[in-house]
Design brief:
Number of strands: 12
Pfam family, one: Glyco_hydro_11
Organism: Tulasnella calospora MUT 4182
InterPro entries: ConA-like_dom_sf, GH11/12, GH11_AS_1, GH11_dom, Glyco_hydro_11
Strand order of the largest sheet: 2-9-6-5
Family: Belongs to the glycosyl hydrolase 11 (cellulase G) family.
Enzyme class: hydrolase
Oligomer: single chain
Strand content: 35-45%
Structural class: mainly beta
Length: 142
């Protein structure tokens, strides 16, 4: 198993990426939804979240309970997700809807330290394969 010093689970897309919303967190308490429209990172209910937008379109990242979130948008470039910071070796599961129109990616995103390596494990993509021209450096079993 690969051990990562930091792991951030991120679905990346410029197409529909919707995690199933829920009503309660792990403690069965109501969780207030938090909608974000400008680039921001933080922690909510123990989950690290990351949202970046270049500001050229309309995009809203809405935090849900646990690791859940949803994104709605019209145009622009953005990246969003929730996970752990710092991370550790762990199994992750996720679900959602991905309906790409044009160039977009659905991926697990993370980084390591010592050495610093940023990575994307691409699950699906739209019109452009982001690995085109890339040199294979390893593999991941899922």
């Amino acid at each position: 198993m690969i051990s990562f010093s930091s792991l951030l689970f991120v679905c990346i897309a410029t197409a529909a990426v919707l995690a199933a919303p829920g009503k309660y967190n792990e403690k069965n308490e109501l969780v207030a939804r938090q909608s974000i429209t400008a680039s921001e990172t933080g922690t909510i209910s123990g989950w690290f979240y990351y949202f970046w937008t270049d500001g050229t379109g309309q995009v809203t990242f809405t935090n849900g309970p646990g690791g859940q979130y949803s994104v709605t948008w019209s145009g622009g470039n953005w990246r969003a997700g929730k996970g752990w910071n710092p991370g550790a070796a762990r199994a992750i599961t996720y679900s959602g809807t991905f309906s790409p129109v044009g160039n977009s990616y659905l991926a697990v995103y993370g980084w390591t330290t010592s050495p610093l390596i940023e990575y994307y494990i691409v699950e699906n993509f739209g019109t452009y394969n982001p690995s085109t021209g890339a040199t294979k450096k390893g593999s991941v079993t899922s």
